[in-house]
Specification:
The complex is a heterodimer of chains A (about 375) and B (about 70).
Chain A lengths: L10 H13 L5 H8 L3 H25 L5 H9 L1 H34 L5 H17 L2 H25 L17 H16 L18 H27 L9 H6 L3 E2 L3 E2 L2 H30 L9 H14 L4 H10 L1 H22 L8
Antiparallel strand pairs in A: 1-2
Helix pairs in contact in A: 1-7, 1-9, 1-11, 2-8, 3-8, 3-9, 3-14, 4-5, 5-6, 5-11, 5-12, 6-11, 6-12, 7-9, 7-11, 8-14
Chain B lengths: L1 H21 L2 H22 L7 H12 L5
Helix pairs in contact in B: 1-2
The chains are: A mainly alpha (about 375), B mainly alpha (about 70).
């Protein structure tokens, strides 16, 4: 069967997409901070160490089945029926995480920026923007990611530098005041939510034009993405101290403290821009992966017919997800990592193991 | 509610006719199924029906039914 995505992206563009995906999780680092407090930077580092072997697994799967989407690989490895169940779980994961993230953006706008505008409006407009981007294809999304990732890094670095005066690095001390349970919990959150979401690239790796460089660029993308997360977590802890634990959005709140000679003040709008652009890349990638996977599942010739109906479903799920921030603050750090664990940590290694044991490979020697 | 119906009508005209013109029947069937689900959910939400939250349901299953929690 022919590939439903006609476009191709380079390894460099793949790396930018991965950085954009991880940058889109800046909002979710606050959930880790609620668990690990001033030691969040430690679990960002350990989370990265946990994810690196997984990346080798993801790339090995794609190298074993060049040009195939993960949905097709599930069918080849597990057979028609079990493969379909695993694929439905994968698509369900994509839709739930997508709805979670568009709701986060909606909540951000209704809480901090445009408080009188209805949530439904933001969700509909934002999802329409993402729908338009994926309608244009992965190549266009990859090209946009260059601008947005550079912009995101610029904003992270510039706000961090402008906050140097407010930062008190003794807030991070004592360095290892964290118990084993908190390390495991925090590492699980970081490896499952921002970094482990790289699993969605199992639907995109097959359009990378040079397969031999996929591993290098994926590792590079995850490394840079994790570096961005590390900078944000260290900055937030240094600037906000223990108040970080009671704030809804530490990055946004810390940027409100910028005051350089009464000229550079209230830089929160910059963080607003960074959150919007990075969530745009992240949600578009999840949306694209969900649409491509569903189209592949139903053996369609093209993915575009499903963009708008799936978008409508995701908007409604996003609205229904939670009715107050207290619900998400309780569920996100405690149950979300457990919910995504089978998709990120269990099925990909199992898929690789079964394909090796059954000696299934489409690779030309 | 008028906006929801108008929006979905536009999607139906724009996407449905394109698929019929191309004679993509399989795509038309799958599109129709997802379209009906999406339209029904939107309409129920708009008229104020209390729909369950998938995220909270998953949280309930994980925490209360399977007993998995940090």
């Amino acid at each position: 069967m022919m590939n439903i995505e006609k476009g191709k992206i380079s390894g460099f563009e793949l790396a930018f997409l991965i950085i954009g995906l991880i940058q889109g999780s800046i909002l979710t680092t606050s959930y880790t901070a609620h668990v690990t407090s001033k030691s969040t930077w430690i679990v960002v580092s350990t989370g990265l160490l946990v994810v690196i072997p997984l990346i080798f697994v993801y790339v090995a799967i794609m190298n074993n089945f060049p040009g195939k989407n993960i949905i097709k690989i599930h069918e080849i490895v597990y057979g028609k029926y079990i493969g379909s169940i695993v694929s439905i779980l994968f698509i369900g994961y994509l839709l739930i995480v997508l709805s979670f993230n568009i709701r986060l953006l909606g909540d951000f706008y209704t809480t901090f920026l445009l408080t009188d505008t209805p949530l439904e409006f933001f969700l509909a407009v934002f999802t329409s923007m993402c729908a338009f981007a994926i309608w244009k294809g992965i190549e266009v999304l990859a090209r946009i990611s260059h601008i947005f990732v550079v912009l995101g890094f610029f904003i992270i670095v510039s706000t961090s530098l402008l906050l140097i005066k407010e930062a008190d690095f003794t807030n991070i001390l004592p360095l290892f005041e964290i118990n084993v349970k908190e390390i495991i919990h925090g590492t699980h959150i970081i490896s499952a939510i921002p970094l482990g979401e790289v699993v969605i690239f199992l639907t995109i790796f097959n359009v990378v034009n040079r397969k031999d460089s996929t591993l290098k660029y994926t590792l590079g993308g995850v490394g840079f993405g994790a570096l961005g997360l590390l900078m944000v977590t260290v900055r937030n802890t240094a600037v906000l101290g223990s108040t970080e634990l009671i704030l809804l959005n530490p990055s946004f709140q810390s940027s409100r403290l910028v005051d350089v000679g009464d000229i550079f003040t209230r830089m929160d709008v910059l963080i607003g821009v960074a959150i919007t652009t990075s969530l745009f890349i992240k949600c578009s990638l999840f949306y694209y992966a969900a649409v491509i996977s569903t189209s592949e599942f139903f053996l369609l010739k093209e993915y575009k017919p499903l963009i708008l109906p799936l978008g409508g479903i995701v908007i409604i799920i996003g609205i229904l997800n939670w009715d107050s921030s207290a619900v998400v603050a309780e569920l996100a750090p405690n149950t979300s990592p457990i919910f995504v664990t089978p998709i990120i940590f269990f099925f990909p290694p199992l898929t690789l193991l079964i394909s090796k044991l059954r000696k299934i490979s489409l690779r030309k020697e | 509610m008028v906006f929801v119906i108008a929006g979905y009508l536009l999607i139906l005209i724009f996407q449905g006719t394109a698929l019929i013109k191309k004679k993509y029947w399989r795509e038309l069937v799958v599109f129709s199924v997802f379209f009906i689900i999406s339209f029904t959910l939107s309409l129920l939400y708009t008229i104020g029906v209390n729909l369950p939250s998938p995220y909270k349901t998953i949280g309930y299953l994980i925490e209360e039914v399977w007993g998995l929690k940090y």
